Amino acid sequence: MTVLLTGAAGFIGMHVAAALLSRGDRVIGVDNLNAYYDVDLKRARLARLQSWPDFRPVVADVADKDAMMELAESHSDVTRIVHLAAQPGVRHSLVDPYAYVQSNVMGHLVVLEMARRLKRLEHLVYASSSSVYGGNRELPFAETDRVDHPVSLYAATKRSGELISESYAHLFGLPQTGLRFFTVYGPWGRPDMAPWMFAEAILQGTPLPLYDGGRLKRDFTFVDDIVAGVVGCLDHPAPAAAPRLLNIGNHRSVEVRHFVEVLEEALGRRAVVVDTPRPLTDVQETFADIEAIRAVCGYEPRTSVERGVPQFAKWYLSWRKGG
After folding, report:
1. Is 51 buried (19+), middle (13-18) or exposed (0-12) by CB count in 10 A?
2. Phi/psi of residue 21, each to 5°?
3. pTM value > 0.90
4. How many domains does the chain contain in total?
5. Taking all residues of the chain, what is their mean pLDDT, rounded to a whole number?
6. Which residues contact 287 (CB under 8 A, 6 or more apart)?
7. Helices 153-172 and 107-115, interaxial angle, to 10°?
8. Lower Cβ count inside 10 Å, N or C end of the chain?
9. How crowded is the C-beta side of 266, counted as CA atoms within 13 Å?
């Protein structure tokens, strides 16, 4: 099976590509290697993937329609797409809103246009986000909840992608599954994500701001569990005219301060915590209802923060030392 995977140099993208390659699939990995965060980290992820002979890296921007259409023409054997490329980060959307619309809306549209030109395509799985639930107070978050009150531009762009996908399924019979990711963490994570920033502050002994004293709760999901869900959904195509939207999380809501405590233990250092007011872009709690994805592919997250955080810490210490 030939899979076109966008965001191959990204955190989740690298892990998904590795899983597909390990089972014998051919992967065409697209990434624009932008400088939103350390490009060396992205190149290191790609270097790991290039140890597989069936991996082909392609440097391209998903919002570049000419480049993506050429890719579709030259790889007509593609049967599955995993679209993970996006401009991430909730708070950065306040700084550079244009990047979010370009990557997350235009980029999503271009991938759909490319997908409908692939005659052998069986399924497209794309990344959405739990951010689309906005200030939802019903717990756990269910796919049937209303998602028309985003509290960040990032969330609005991801919801836009969901709606565009629904229209393409209706118009062109494009089989699609959208996955709403819940707070993914693990080895090879991003420097702008909380676990990395927490670890850096702990090791440097610098103040660590925790919103509302760390009382916010998140459905922290280990990357290996995410990969199992992505690949499982990819292998169970949605009906052509019935696109799916599924939560993919750990089905556990954990206080951020507990996450920090486990990280402190793993790093052997204490954090200098500073109680900080919660910004408008952050919600009080996230908690995924995973019954729908469980029914589709038997998804069952297995990694608690007590098991996952030490794995992240071990990798982080190695990366920090140049490993």
Report:
1. exposed
2. -65, -40
3. yes
4. 1
5. 96
6. 139, 140, 141, 217, 219, 249, 251, 252, 253
7. 20
8. C
9. 22
What is the per-residue pLDDT across 21-51, written as a single tens digit (0 to 9) for each? Answer: 999 999 999 999 999 999 999 999 999 999 9
C-alpha–C-alpha distance, residues 136 and 128, integer Å: 16
What residues make up the domain containing 168? 2-183+221-250+287-302
Asked whether residue 294 is domain-assigned, the answer is: yes
How far apart are alpha carbons 93 and 155 in whole angstroms? 9
Q: pLDDT tens, 125-164?
A: 999 999 999 988 899 999 999 999 999 999 999 999 999 9
Task: Tokens for 123, please give them.
Answer: 């399924």
Rg (CA), the chain: 19
Does 195 map to a domain? no
Residues 6+ apart with CB under 8 A from 254: 217, 218, 219, 220, 305
* Torsion, Cα of 268, 272, 275, 280 (10° steps): -70
Catalytic residue among 37, 100, 154, 299: 154
CA distance linking residue 23 with residue 235, whole number of Å:
12
Spatial contact of 163 and 245, defined as CB atoms under 8 Å apart: no
User: Tokens for 292?
Assistant: 């729908």
- CATH number of the structural domain spanning residue 57: 3.40.50.720
133 annotated active-site = no
Is residue 197 domain-resident? no
